[in-house]
Structure formats: structure tokens, C-alpha cells
Amino acid sequence: MIASSIESEIRYFLSAPAPGVLCIKGQWGVGKTHAWRKALASAQKDGKLALSKYSYVSLFGLNSLDDLKLEILLRRQSGASIGKEPDEATVLGNIRGANAKGALASLGQAFSLIMNRKGVADIAAKASFMFVTQQIVCLDDLERASKGLSVREVLGLVSMLSESRGCKVAILLNEEQHDEKDEFKRQLEKVADRTLVFNLSPKESAEIAVSGTTHFDQTLRDRMIDLDMRNLRVNFRLAKAAHRLVECLPQDEELVDSCIATMVLGFYAGSGSEGVPPFNFIRRYDKLGAQLRANTDSLSAEEVSYHELLKTYPYDNCSRLDSLILDSTENGHFQEDAIQSVAREILEERQLQPTARDFDSVWSDLYFGSLETDDDTFLDALYDSACREMPRLSASNIHTTIQFLRKAGRDYQVNDVMQKYFELHAAERPEFYAKAHAEIGVVAEEDKLFRTALLERYEASLASRDPIESIKEIASGRAFTEDDLFLLRRMTEEDFVRTFESLRGPEIRKAASMIGMMSINVGAEGDSVRGRAVMALERIGDKSPLRRQKVQGLMAELS
User: Fold this and answer.
1) Which residues on adjacent β-strands are paired with residue 62?
2) pLDDT at residue 97 in the model
């Protein structure tokens, strides 16, 4: 059912004079709670609420029927407060109201009960709940209640409130996630007067999450719709993140549009929905390579569907800027400074060659777009654009360029492209080359030239790093990586001595503990690594009696 129909049904339910039970079902994040609150606020504004009191209760974590009754009582609102989160004054006012009606012996007892949850549940919920009558009650997250609160109990209470207390009760839930799904369906049929199935279209979800009218807003909505993104909670989070991204980017429409497309794709990958391409596929995806592939026999059914999904989506490959945006999306750490820096480099490169033929245009115009293009014309343009635009090109772009130049016998241009690429990225850390190597993926033996060179550069870059500095960084709080394990395997007994003697304060014990933990992850060499570290501490202990005393605890950390 579409959003406008759902809202109309809710408004009718809220305005009708008769009590009743309304059930709204839908998957997590589709907007059930949002739709309920919007309809409630609209009906209140128009004076169309049939009842003047209201309680909203999430059943998440509630463990008993008495807990639920108490929440309904304490979260009751009226008048202009309906729909707002109850504050301390509201809660205390509800207790005073129950006390004034004789439910509690004294106000002092009420306050003491606030400090004793079990006392409240045992006394207030039982004595005061009799005064919950003729009000609207919304019960959300029914499937997330604790084991101590059964479906039968909740729906029994709902039935009693509707039939005996003159209440209107709305139930919001994701039926498919309920532990007692079959039992719930049977019981719900006996209780609910009306059941609505909530399922926003991608367009509705996008328009609710992004309501602005700017070019940015429309682009963001379009990309959400392209990927069939219906989860409203995900889309709300995406909208906030996209606004933050745009705020840190140079105001270049083409660049901004591209970055938005990448961020939307990243949120889509992280949504956990069925059939969504994972991050590792997105990072190694190359639209050009996919177009050049003669057949898809080597791809799994999932990979074929991923390629089909991205065929018309405005994402060609994982550039350096795309990689930073995807990292920020996947890991939750927004790398603002790095994103700004790379974005500025891309614009500066464009300004230096404003009339040059774009790398993408070489393919779209000269290769895919014309049967009359001479081979040398295309290859010259490909070589020139690859060299000129290298800072923004992905490893997959370079790999494809090298493949075409090599097969045409242009070895001198192949060597030049590779030399320029490695000179450009000479200062990169080992993980850059590891990502580039993984991005290219498995290739035929005759096409391994660039991929092999990346692996060699990765190993050379890793070998040049000081393992002692790596251990120091980990002792300071950085998580260890596969690169660190590679370095740990290479550490000699003398390296361990220098490492321990160069550390200060808590870092010493932390380093010993992390070396012990990392040695477990290096496979068959773990005992040897740990043995060299122990021998290093033995050598330090041999220097004096007090040192011997100090290293005893560190040896325990290593083990």
C-alpha cells in the first residue's frame, strides 16, 4: 500500500469515534513509525483526534506485561504534547494523576517507586493501569520484545484496551522477524479490526528522505531510485551523509554528481539487502572491462546480476576519490581532509587540460561509438588520455589501457604508462598497491604484466617499512593488518630488543600483548616469532636484576 493511502487509513482510524485495533506491518526501516507519527501530527493539527490522550511505547527490551502496562501509563500525553517524547514533568504528572485517584498511598511513595523499577512494576502498573481508558495507544517493535513478554499476552492486553477500556490501539511490527510468527498471525486475526501492509516505493522513500528542490537533492533522489532503495531509515542516514559530503567538496556539478552516485552505491552495499553487490565487488568493478568482456561464463550468477545492475548506473570504476568515499561509508569514518585533497587534485588536472579528449570519451566515441575509427587514432588517443589523466584513473583503467597497447605491439608505450603510474604513486603506502592488485582481480596469464608489477611494488613497499615503527603504532592503539603480520615475521631478535627498549610507559606492556596476539595469526611461524620476542626480553633482563624483574610480567603478556 502506498504512503498516501496508509496515511489516509491512519487518519480515518484516529478520527473515527469507535474504539478499535489497527495493525501496520512492514519490513524494518520501510517507514511504518514515520508514517504513523506524520498521520498523528496531521490529525492533531486538524483537530481530528477522536480521543484526547495518547501513549507511544516501543516494546524493544520490555520483559513482562507489567513493564508494558507501566510504560503505557507513564508515557501518556494529552493536548499539545501528543506526539512528543515525554519529559520528566510528563512522567511525574502521570504518577501524580494516578496518586490523586487513590492508586498510590502517597506522593512520597510514588517518588520512591521511581527509584525502584520492580516496585513500580508490581504496584503502580497493577493499581494505576485501571485508569488507562479512552486513549490512543501505539505499540511499536512488537517483534523486538524480550522472551518474557509473549505475543498472547500483548494481544490479550490490546483486546482488553479496545473492548473494555474504549481505547484505539495501533500495532506496528515486522511480522517476518517475529520469533512466534505463526502464533502471532493466528492471534492477530482475532484482535485486529484492520491490517495494513506498508511498502513504500523507491520514489516515495526517496521523496520522504530528501524533500529539497536543489539539483543536489534531485540527483540524490534519482540515485536512490536507480538502486530501488526503499528502506527509509537507511535513506535518512544516507541523506545526512550526502549533505556532509557535498559540503566538503568543491562546487563542481559534475564532480559532486559523481561523488553522490558513489556514496549512494556505498550505502546500498551496506544495507544488507538480498542481492546487493558487496563492497569488494564495487571496488574492483570496471564498467569498461565489463563492456569489453566477450562472455560471462567465468562469472557467478550473483556477479552477472551485479554487472546488470551497474550497467546503466553512473559509476564506472573505483577511482581514488571513490575509494575514499566507499571507505568512509563502509567504516563509518568520514575522511574529510583526504576527500577534499583528492577532489581538488582532480579539478586542477581538468583545468590544466580543459580541451583535451577525456579518457572516457576515447572509449565511448572512438571505440564503442564508431566503426570507422582507425586503430592508430584510437590507440594514440588512449595512450595520450591515460598519461594525461592518470591521477584520476583507477588501476582497472590502467590495466585495460596496457592490455590494448601491449596487444598492438606498442611496448614502449606500455612501459611509459607503467613508469608514469608508479612514479605518480611512489609515496603510497603498501595497502594502496594491495587494493589496486585486488581491484584488477584474476586475469589470464598473458595479461598479468601490470598486476604482477603491482604485487612486486606492494612487497617492495612493505619491505621498506620499519617493523619497529609498525609495532609502536599498534602499541599506540592502531589495529594490526595483514601488512603488520608480514613485517612481524621478518623481525629478528635484535629488532625485538630495540623495539622494547624504545617504547615508554603503557606502550611497553601493550606491545608485548599485541605481539603475542599477532603471533597467533601468522600461522606456523607463530611459535618462532614469539620465541624471538621472548629471547629479546631475556637479553634485556640479563642486563640487571631490576630489568629481570620488569620483564617477567611482559613474558606473561607474550604468552
Assistant:
1) none
2) 61
pLDDT band at 90 (very low <50, low <70, confident <90, very high): low
Domains of the chain and any CATH numbers? 3-199 (3.40.50.300), 204-351 (no CATH), 357-462 (no CATH), 467-558 (no CATH)
- For 108, 302, 463, 465, 555, the CA distances from 490, given in Å and listed in that order, are 70, 40, 9, 11, 20
For residues 154 and 62, the answer to whether their CB atoms sit within 8 Å is no
Q: Classify residue 286 by its DSSP letter.
A: B
Looking at 335-344, 351-360, 421-430, which range is the least confident one? 351-360
Mean pLDDT within 365-369: 89
Is residue 375 packed enough to be buried (19+ CB in 10 Å), middle (13-18) or exposed (0-12)?
exposed
Q: Which amino acid is located at 474 in the chain?
A: I
Q: Provide the residue type at 555 as one letter.
A: M
For the residues of 527-559, what is the DSSP string, one character each? HHHHHHHHHHHHHHHTT-HHHHHHHHHHHHHH-
Contacts of 273 (CB under 8 A, 6+ apart): 231
Give Cα separations from 172 to 34, 175, 195, 197, 208 (angstroms): 11, 9, 10, 10, 19
Q: What is the pLDDT of residues 262-307, one digit of tens each?
A: 999 999 999 878 889 999 899 888 888 777 765 666 778 888 899 9
Phi-psi region of 251 (alpha: psi -120 to 50; beta: other; left: phi over 0): beta
Cβ-contact 133, 163 below 8 angstroms: no
Closest CA to 145 of 184, 114, 115, 113: 184
Residue 256 pLDDT exceeds 70: yes
Q: Read off the pTM.
A: 0.64
What is the amino acid identity at position 364?
Answer: S
> In 3-state terms, what secondary structure has residue 58?
strand
Dist. CA 109–CA 514, nearest whole Å: 54
d(CA 319, CA 322): 5
Cα separations (Å) of 325 from 307, 321, 329, 335, 425?
21, 6, 6, 8, 19
Q: Is the dihedral of CA 360, 365, 371, 373 positive or negative?
A: negative
Q: What is the mean pLDDT of the chain?
A: 85
Give me 250's grid cell.
Answer: 568543491
Per-residue pLDDT of 396-446, as tens digits, reads 889 999 999 999 999 999 999 999 999 999 888 887 888 888 778 777 777
pLDDT band at 127; cut points 50, 70, 90: low
Question: Which DSSP state fits 356?
Answer: S
Q: Which of 339, 291, 351 is nearest to 317 (CA)?
A: 291
CA-nearest of 384, 412, 386 to 399 is: 386
Q: What percent of the chain has pLDDT over 70?
A: 88
| CA angle 480–483–488, rounded 5-degree value | 80
Give CA–CA dist 202/199, Å, rounded.
9
Quick one: cell of 183?
502464533
